[in-house]
TrEMBL record:
Annotated protein name in UniProt: Aspartic proteinase CDR1
Keywords: Aspartyl protease, Glycoprotein, Hydrolase, Protease, Secreted, Signal
SUPFAM superfamilies: Acid proteases (SSF50630)
Transmembrane segment boundaries: none
Domain Peptidase A1 span(s) in chain numbering: 78-420
One example of a Gene Ontology biological process annotation: proteolysis
Species whose genome carries this gene: Quillaja saponaria
This protein's record includes keyword Secreted: yes
Family recorded in the similarity comment: Belongs to the peptidase A1 family.
């Protein structure tokens, strides 16, 4: 860690790229991982859910978006503070394992959404450098990148529900503040977003893409931090925002110890999503299999996404699961409430006494879900709704509500995801 502190000092006084690269090699030699704090960010009464969409998933997620608009409680992201540039400018970005690009709202804005904190100003950074469109491999790692007449790498990156960022790909210094308090810097390629629209709110200054594709933060940092691996512990909905949790990168981020279960990552053509195989979900002691008698179970039928709030399941599986959850709750659900829509909701003065659900992932990885992870109170007193919805796609999403209070590790080199039950508010 001393190494990285030294590196940072040297980085701050450096003003030309060659020096910063020199310093970077110091960090590289150390090849150490690091941890940062995460901030829970719920907006119960604002922006609609942000759903992921990219490439061939676009259509699927647009459909999901429509289905989800009723889950007004279903918002919640986790933010991570990073700084870009020299001198560093702070950015709070949404952590998103379902997309790759790291980007921030960037001056001058053609069309930015409202943001409370100052936007990133590349003019004030001595390390900002647009990457050349023709000669840069990274520019073409985004299939939507186009070269401008001045050889600038213009990108467009879309998410579900029509959210979009457009701008210029650039090389810049990214600085993390480790949980030990030290600044740690690297050079990465990120999106300087001049035209950003959609369901982002005024505290979200950009997005930290942590997917498996080549342009994601973890793919870019992997060689410098002892491997492409990271872990996070997300705090539950309605946690006091002053309580932070932890995200770790590289060596030291492994999820170890008693009670760890692991499942295999399934490689598909789309490298971004973390596909896993969900065999079924038990409600109490009753197993509801993912597939029915006429289907075969396909590998990689779910992906794990910190940027999507609910669990989203194929319709047939979802319907069978909801029937079983209803069976096991000794209360009448709320019916025909236009504000709540079709979701399964209950009204109670106390905490909801729901059954334990167990997600059975391939390889014997059983992940227990309590009502904290499965029933989210919408902004209506005493109402709890099942934090799941359905899709016409045959691939589902394991969203962030279900991920809370688990330390979840993604090891891209080994191709596994690990889960360990953890109180993320006390990390
Ligand atoms: C590239 O991005 C710049 C800055 O946002 C914009 O002014 C220009 O029109 C874009 N060019 C193309 C070809 O999209
Ligand atoms: C910004 O994005 C919107 C929506 O895609 C588009 O209509 C508009 O032309 C873009 N503006 C610029 C300057 O690129
Ligand atoms: C689901 O598919 C698997 C593998 O194709 C099969 O062995 C199993 O019997 C199926 N489950 C049900 C409930 O039909
Ligand atoms: C099984 O699921 C498929 C699609 O998910 C559905 O079309 C079919 O009707 C289901 N079969 C049974 C027997 O429920
Ligand atoms: C399931 O999906 C259908 C079709 O998209 C939608 O009409 C319905 O509201 C969804 N159900 C729930 C509970 O979200």
């Amino acid at each position: 860690m001393t190494n990285t502190a030294t590196f940072h000092t040297c980085f701050v006084i450096a003003s030309i790229l060659s020096i910063s690269l020199l310093c970077l090699s110091t960090t590289k030699a150390s090849n150490e991982g690091f941890s940062v704090e995460l901030i829970r960010h719920d907006h119960p009464s604002h922006s609609p859910l942000m759903n992921k969409a990219f490439g061939r998933f676009m259509r699927q997620f647009n459909e999901i978006d429509t289905a989800q608009s009723a889950i007004t409680a279903g918002k919640g992201h986790h933010l991570m503070k990073v700084s870009f540039g020299n001198p560093p400018q702070d950015i709070y970005g949404i952590i998103d394992t379902g997309s790759d690009l790291v980007w921030a709202q960037c001056l001058p804005c053609d069309n930015c959404y409202k943001q409370i904190n100052p936007k990133f100003d590349p003019q004030k950074s001595s390390t900002f450098k647009e990457i050349p469109c023709d000669k840069s491999k990274q520019c073409h790692q985004l299939d939507t990148a186009v070269c401008s007449s001045s050889n600038v790498c213009n990108y467009t990156y879309g998410y579900g529900g029509g959210s979009l960022t457009q701008g210029v790909l650039a090389q810049e210094a990214i600085t993390f503040t480790s949980t030990q308090g030290q600044p740690i810097s690297y050079n990465i390629v990120f999106g300087c977003g001049h035209n950003n629209t959609g369901t982002f709110n005024d505290q979200e200054m950009g997005l930290i893409g942590l997917g498996g594709g080549p342009i994601s933060l973890i793919s870019q940092l992997g060689d410098s931090i002892g491997g492409k691996k990271f872990s996070h512990c997300l705090t539950p909905f309605y946690t006091d925002p002053h309580i932070t949790s932890k995200m770790s990168f590289g060596s030291g981020s492994e999820v170890l110890g008693d009670g760890v279960v692991s499942t295999t990552l399934v490689a598909k053509q789309d490298k971004t999503p973390y596909f896993v195989t969900l065999e079924g979900i038990s409600v109490g002691n009753t197993l509801v299999p993912f597939n029915n008698s006429t289907q075969t179970l396909s590998k990689g039928n779910m992906f794990i996404d910190s940027g999507t709030p609910p669990i989203i399941l194929p319709e047939d599986f979802y319907n069978r699961l909801v029937v079983e959850v209803r069976n096991q709750i000794q209360m009448e659900p709320i019916e025909n409430d236009p504000e709540l829509g079709p979701q399964l909701c209950y009204k109670t003065d106390k905490n909801l006494e729901g059954p334990i659900l167990t997600a059975h992932f391939d390889g014997g990885a059983d992940v227990e879900l309590t009502p904290t992870q499965t029933f989210i109170p919408p902004p209506k007193d005493g109402v709890f709704c099942l934090s799941m919805t359905n899709t016409t796609s045959d691939v589902g999403i394991y969203g962030n509500f279900a991920q809370v209070n688990y330390l979840i590790g993604f090891d891209l080199d080994k191709g596994v995801v690990s889960f360990k039950q953890t109180d993320c508010t006390k990390q």
